[in-house]
Amino acid sequence: MVWGHLLYLSGQIISMKNFFNFLKSKTFFIQLGLALLVLIIVIFVTLRYLNNTTNHGEFVEVPDFSKKSVMDMRKSIEEAGLRYEVLDSANYNPDYPRFSIIEQNPSAGSKVKENRKIYFTVNPSGYKKVTVPKIIQVTKRNASSMLKAVGLDVQRVTYVDELGKDMVYQIKYKGKYIKPGDKLPKTSKIELICGNGSITERAVIKSESED
């Protein structure tokens, strides 16, 4: 039993001695050098791959596409190495040409990676249409509020001989008579024809003849 332990310890001592001798050997340093070289090559190749795939340190300045047509935008964005997506817009802006760019994200001058997608909002062809509310036989004040609520404006008020003072009797748009339920472009300006509180001469004659 004792001899067995002594033989085991002797073997361990010889193994440790051989291990330390190996660490001092030329073979160990050659293998260590090869391992470090392989590690350096792997790190270098990985960094190069990441630089090429992510364009590390390379940025594109987003151009200003404001008021450009969609056709011109497409040409410019391809030249800049970017991608795009067009978003619909329900709000017409009269300060911009129809079907032109009114908003972009990211904004002009931003630094982005090549192939980045830019989102554009395009100006529609005009104001969306709204329905003229039921304002006949409604007071001028209430009619103005109802029109404003749907996006229409009162351009002028014309008075005629009708008994209902400030009561709306007719509506005009660009000189033509219209009626509740008609469709007009939002922000359109209309004319209200209201009564001045006076009874018409025809009504007086008719009333007298009935007597």
UniProtKB/TrEMBL annotation:
<protein>
    <submittedName>
        <fullName>PASTA domain-containing protein</fullName>
    </submittedName>
</protein>
<keyword id="KW-1133">Transmembrane helix</keyword>
<dbReference type="Pfam" id="PF03793">
    <property type="entry name" value="PASTA"/>
</dbReference>
<keyword id="KW-0812">Transmembrane</keyword>
<feature type="transmembrane region" description="Helical">
    <location>
        <begin position="28"/>
        <end position="50"/>
    </location>
</feature>
<feature type="domain" description="PASTA">
    <location>
        <begin position="52"/>
        <end position="124"/>
    </location>
</feature>
<dbReference type="InterPro" id="IPR005543">
    <property type="entry name" value="PASTA_dom"/>
</dbReference>
<keyword id="KW-0472">Membrane</keyword>
